From TrEMBL:
NCBIfam families: guided_TnpB, IS200/IS605 family accessory protein TnpB-like domain. It comes from the Bacteria. The keyword Glycoprotein does not apply. Residues 38-104 form the Cas12f1-like TNB domain. Keywords: DNA-binding, Endonuclease, Hydrolase, Nuclease. Coiled coil: none annotated. InterPro entries: Cas12f1-like_TNB (IPR010095). This is RNA-guided endonuclease InsQ/TnpB family protein. The lineage of its organism: Bacteria, Bacillati, Actinomycetota, Actinomycetes, Streptosporangiales. It comes from Nonomuraea guangzhouensis. One of its GO terms (molecular function) is endonuclease activity.
Length: 124
């Protein structure tokens, strides 16, 4: 958070409701734990971001772990295992979490820019 404030950047998070729904479909027994954890994390980050004056946006989490952050090719086979990402299109090799976080950051930036533009009155 200090890093985000110092560098005048923002923070993007996957939409929490959608994550909870995805988890529920896969592992019913763990729903309570996951939804509690994600909710706590989101609330905590929102509080810290507001105090630090750092923009916080929630983004559509669809395919963030399957999309290549470099060429934006989406393929479920890109995600080799929990840790490894190899793009089937451009061949880039990355840590899966690092790749997904780059996608989330890019979507956050796009959402932030779109939000700013939407507040500009439309010209007739
Ligand atoms: Zn790629």
């Amino acid at each position: 958070m200090t890093e985000a404030a110092r560098t005048c950047s923002g923070i993007a998070l996957e939409d929490l409701g959608a994550i909870r729904d995805r988890v529920r479909l896969r592992k019913p027994q763990r729903v309570t734990f996951h939804s509690w954890a994600f909710h706590q994390l989101g609330t905590f980050l929102a509080y810290k971001a507001r105090r630090a004056g750092v923009p916080l946006v929630y983004v559509d989490p669809a395919y963030t772990s399957q999309e290549c952050a470099d060429c934006h090719h989406i393929d479920k086979n890109n995600r080799v295992d929990q840790a490894l990402f190899i793009c089937r299109n451009c061949g880039v090799v990355a840590h899966a979490d690092r790749n997904a976080s780059r996608n989330i950051a890019a979507r956050g930036e796009a959402a932030w820019i779109a939000g700013r533009e939407s507040r500009v009155p439309a010209t007739p």
